[in-house]
Amino acid sequence: MSPYQPRTVKQLGAWYASRKQAGKSGFANLEDFLAWYHDQNKICHYCGLSEEESQALVMNGFLLSKRFPQKGVIGRGTSRGTWLEIDRKNPALNYSRENCVLSCYFCNNDKSDIFSAEEYKQFIGDRPGFLRMKLKLLKPG
């Protein structure tokens, strides 16, 4: 399995800059955003899946989507699922300390192109349990 890689400050800075340029940032500045981000537990606010677990699922090619890294290589437009996403609790409001949580790709996007119909039914019943079961299939022994 690929080793876990947290987001870099450069990646976070690019995320912040794009939201600021779009007029969607309610953070005081980059430092305020970085302080908020680094204070967060890296688990999905909704289902409890850790960023490390999510990354292992997509980087090892166990779950496939055109949005995921291809053959474990992160590229432009193919980094989804690698890190927890910054989700707005209320999508009508800006990204801010009060309005943001970390969310896994699966909860934030709940798209049907990742699983078969049968897998999707299992997935929505117990998201973290289903994904952790898939992870166990990757581990040797």
Task: Kindly summarize this structure in a few lines.
Helix content is about 40%, strand content about 5%.
Structure in words:
With 141 residues, the protein is mainly alpha-helical. The chain has a single domain (9-138), classed as Herpes Virus-1. 41% of the residues lie in helices and 6% in strands. It has six helices and two strands; from the N terminus they run αααββααα. It has a two-stranded antiparallel ribbon with strand order 1-2. α5 packs across α6 (127-138). The longest helix is centred in the first third of the chain and has 13 residues, at 9-21.
As a percent range, the share of helical residues equals 40-55%
Radius of gyration, rounded? 15 Å
Amount of beta strand: 5-15%
- Specify the structural class: mainly alpha
Please state the overall shape, judged from the principal axes of the Cα atoms.
globular
Order of helices and strands: HHHEEHHH
- Major sheet description: 2 strands, antiparallel
Q: What is the first-to-last residue Cα distance?
A: 13 Å
Spatial order of strands in the largest sheet: 1-2
Number of domains: 1
CATH A-level architecture: 2-Layer Sandwich
How are the secondary structure elements laid out?
Elements: H1 9-21, H2 30-39, H3 51-59, E1 85-88, E2 100-103, H4 105-109, H5 117-125, H6 127-138
Antiparallel strand pairs: 1-2
Structural key phrases:
single chain; 141 residues; mainly alpha; Herpes Virus-1; two-stranded antiparallel sheet; globular
